Amino acid sequence: MKGKMFGIFATVLLSTNMLTPVFVQAESMDKLDEKATTIARQSDKISAELQLALNDVNKTYQEVNGIRSEIEANQQTIEKTKSEIAETEKNIAQRKEVIAERMKEVQLNSTTDRTITALLEAKDFNDFLNRAYAMSVIQKAEKEKVTSLNEAKAKLDELKTTQETTQAKLVANEESLKTESSQLDNKMENLKTELADKKSSLEEISQAKEVEQARLTAEKAQKEKAEKEAKQAAKQAAEKAEVQKAAEAKAQQEQAAAAQAQQSASSSATSETQTQESVQQPAAPEQPAAPAPSTPTTSGRTIQMQSTAYSCAESVNTFYTALGIDLRQNPQVVAVDPSVVPLGSMVEVSGYGIAIAGDTGGAIKGNIVDVHFPTVEQCIQWGRRSVTLTIIS
Predict the structure, then answer these.
(1) pLDDT per residue as tens digits for the range 205-243
(2) In 3-state terms, what secondary structure has residue 353?
(3) In Å, how far are 79, 235, 241, 242, 275 from 246, measured between CA atoms?
C-alpha cells in the first residue's frame, strides 16, 4: 500500500507540474510574440527617424560647406578691397605731396607774380582769356583728381565695412550650423544606440522563445511518456489482478476437492486420520501468502555522481525549471544531464532524498547532479560531495 501511495503521489505531482505550465507557457509565448511585434514596430519607427536625421545632417553639411565657400570668397574680396584702399590712400598721399610742393614753390618763387606776368604778356584779349582759362582748368583738374581719390577711398571704406559685416554674419551662420550639425550628430548616435538596444531586445526575446518552445516540446514528450507509462502500469496491474484472481480460483477449487475427499473417507477412523493428514499437509503451502509491504521499485540503475547545490532564491536563477516546475511550490527537484538521467524521472539521492529530475543546466554534464534547496545557506552547507543516485521507475 505504501508503494502504491508513493506511485500515485509521484504521478499526480508530475501531472500537475507538467500540465499547468502548458497553459502558462502558451500565454507566455503569446506575450513574447506581442512584445517582439511591438519592439519591431518601434525599431522601424527609429529607423525612419534615423533616415530623416541623416538627411538633415547631409543638408546641414552642404549648407556649412556653402557658407564656408562664401566666407572664403568674401574674405578674398575683403583682401582685394583692402589692397585697393591702400593703393588709393597711397595715390592721395602722393597727390597731396605734389600739391604741397607746388604751394611751397609758389610761396618760395613768387609763382603768383609769374602767373600775373604770364597773363599780362598776352598779345591780345583773346590770348589773355585763353591763358586764364588754361590756368583755371589746370587748377580745377588738380582739385577734381584729389576729390575723386577721396570719393574712391570713401566708397572702398564703405565696401570694406559691408564686406566685414557680411563676413561676421557668415561666420555666425557657420557656427549656428555647426551647432545644429553637432546636435543632429548626437541625435543620430542616440537613435543608433536605441536601435541597437531594440535589436538586442529582439534577440533576447528570440532566445527566450526558443527556450520556451524547447521546454514546451519537452513537456509534451514527457506527458506522452507519462501517459504511455501509465497505460503500461494499468496493463500490468490488470494482468497481475488476473493472475491473482486465477490463483484464488485455483485455491478455492483445491479446498473444495480436499473437503470432498475428507467427507468420502469419514467411514473409517484410520482412513479418516490418514485422509486428514494427507489433506492438512498439502493445504498449508497452498494458502495464499500475505503480500509483502510494497516499496518503490527501481529501474536497476545506480550511478555514482558528484553533487552540487543551487537555489531559486539566488538572483541569477528563475523560479521555474526546464520542465516548468515551480520551485517555490515543489522545491524537491534536482538538475541532471538528460543523456544520463531522463528528465521527469523519480530519483533518490543519498543524503538528499527522493526528488524529481526536472531541471537542466549549462554546467550539468555527465555524472553531475545539482540538488535544489529553498535557501542559499542550505546550498552552502551541502557544498560539493560524492553521492549515489538511484533512478526510481
Answers:
(1) 988 888 888 888 888 888 899 998 888 888 888 888 888
(2) strand
(3) 125, 17, 9, 6, 27
